Amino acid sequence: MTDDMLSQDEIDALLNGGGGDDSSAELDKDKKDTPEAERLSVLEEDALGEIGNISFGSSATALSSLLNQKVEITTPTISVVDRAHLPEEFPKPHVAVGVTYTDGFSGENVLVIQTEDAAIIADLMLGGDGTSPDAQLSDIALSAVQEAMNQMMGSAATSMSTIFNKKVDISPPAIDVLDLEVDKGTERIPNEEVLVKVSFQLKIGTLIDSSIMQLIPVRFGKEMVEELLNPEAKEEPEQVTESPRVEESAQKDPEPPSVKETAEQAAPEPQYVGAPSGYGMEKADIQHASFQEFDQSSAMTPAAQNNLDMLMDIPLKVTVELGRTKRTVKEILDLSAGSVVELDKLAGEPVDIHVNDKLMAKGEVVVIDENFGVRVTDIVSPKERLTKLR
């Protein structure tokens, strides 16, 4: 019986797993081989995840309005990827959309999506229902995907402006089919040896349920985290260099004689609401401002009447709108001579009269000596006009 029993060492080996030590050792080796400057701490991963969660949350809203589908983007997962291992991350062809930050930051950002998902997005953009997309992405399909990604990245940049409290802008996106097996489209990937991969789960209605990935250089990711956690770090040097100059100027010339003499000549007894910095605040005589009351019963003076007459010559743009409609990109491209575009107004319904693009009245179309005209039938009330001006 003792021969059939396992020893304690054998039981421990079975519990630990045959390949567990090797894989753990391999992960530890990879981590040790990565330079310290190219690693991400847990805090940095959490910060990048929060930035991606907020920025791509607004992107989901923009894409939903564009595709007329419910779009969900989950909380991202962050990992560091070696450029040499990218073929393992993307074994099949993908679509890569690259943008460069032109304002606020200096860096690159690449959005990578699966080819099948890009085909569905292109079909929805071109007026289809997304159920039978063309697997071969044509130039028109790639342009449609590019526009969708442009809206997404634009919304993400707007959200980043709010996060970092400064203007963030991006260049127009460039799109390519990424096939690492044949080294195609690799110019869209940032030229860095180590990259941060931010992976989201993307759901579009019942059509797409897969992942969408963002690749950014580690240096750029660390820069965003540093500015998020220490927003005043870059402003301190400017304040240190400027403060001595201001103090020195105030000490050398607290009351410039030329300016003071000029002020005394112009007003022997100055009454300042607020004195300029360095010109003797203790001498300022602060008083309440007095205003002349309007006499509504009095007639308008000739000068005021002339001023009002000057406004009468200002030109205003008057536009008559028959109606409006919405069409997809595919329907617009299909328009030709003889095509009929149906508007949202019924025959005989009053048309809208806009003054400087603001609705002011309604009327009916008439013909005057072979020219079209409009007869005003209703004036929008002042209350409604004020509401539309706000």
Provide a descriptive summary of the structure in words.
- A hairpin with a 3-residue loop joins strand 7 and strand 8.
- It is extended, with a radius of gyration of 34 Å.
- The chain has helices spanning 8-16, 20-33, 42-67, 86-89, 115-125, 139-164, 218-229, 236-252, 257-266, 302-311, 329-333, 382-389; strands spanning 71-73, 77-82, 94-103, 108-114, 169-170, 174-178, 194-204, 208-217, 318-321, 351-355, 358-368, 371-379.
- Among the domains are: 34-229, CheC-like (Chemotaxis protein chec); 316-335 and 345-389, SpoA-like (Surface presentation of antigens (SPOA)), CATH 2.30.330.
- Mean pLDDT is 76; it is low at 18-32, 236-253 and 270-282.
- Strands 1, 2, 3, 4, 5, 6, 7 and 8 form an eight-stranded antiparallel sheet that branches. A four-stranded antiparallel sheet has the order 9-10-11-12.
- It has twelve helices and twelve strands.
- The protein is α+β, with helices and mostly antiparallel strands and 390 residues long.
Distance between the termini: 92 Å
What is the overall shape?
extended
Structural class of the secondary elements? alpha+beta
Question: How would you sum up the major sheet?
Answer: 8 strands, antiparallel
CATH topology name of the domain at 34-229, in short, is: Chemotaxis protein chec
* Helix segment tally: 12
At the first level of CATH, the class of the domain at 34-229 is Alpha Beta
Q: Roughly how many Å is the radius of gyration? A: 34 Å
Helix content: 25-40%
Give me the count of strands.
12
Q: Uncertain segments of ≥5 residues (pLDDT<50)? A: 18-32, 236-253, 270-282
What's the CATH H-level superfamily name of the domain at 34-229? CheC-like
Using the 3D structure, state the CATH architecture of the domain at 34-229. Answer: 3-Layer(aba) Sandwich
Query: Into which percentage range does the β-strand content fall?
Result: 15-25%
Mean residue pLDDT = 76
Write the H/E string, N to C. Answer: HHHEEHEEHHEEEEHHHHEHEEEH
